[in-house]
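Batch manifest, entry 17 of 40.
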Amino acid sequence: QVQLVESGGGLAQPGGSLELSCAASGTMSSIYRMAWYRQAPGKQRELVAVALSGGTTDYADSVRGRFTISRDNAKNTVSLQMNSLKPEDTAVYYCHALIVQPAIRNYWGQGTQVTVSS
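Output type: structure tokens
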């Protein structure tokens, strides 16, 4: 079994920064894809940023240029540096991973709250 444990999040002022981290532990062959999603109240969960094992990254248009996703393949971790935060970034952020065991399975973290408010 695999666990994704998130840390970080909390309260930030508009224009401020926060960093989220996620660590995967358990039995796995490799991690193909790690990503961050978010879900605001009353809205669907949306993809924020994704990082593939080969180094490719991509971002939602709403966060491009403000957020940076980073992976450490040796440590099975992924982080999300969030700068220039806006109130509309307020949401529960979830870490997600596609893990090869060798079958490919989805795993989710428990979620961490990010609130941007003055």
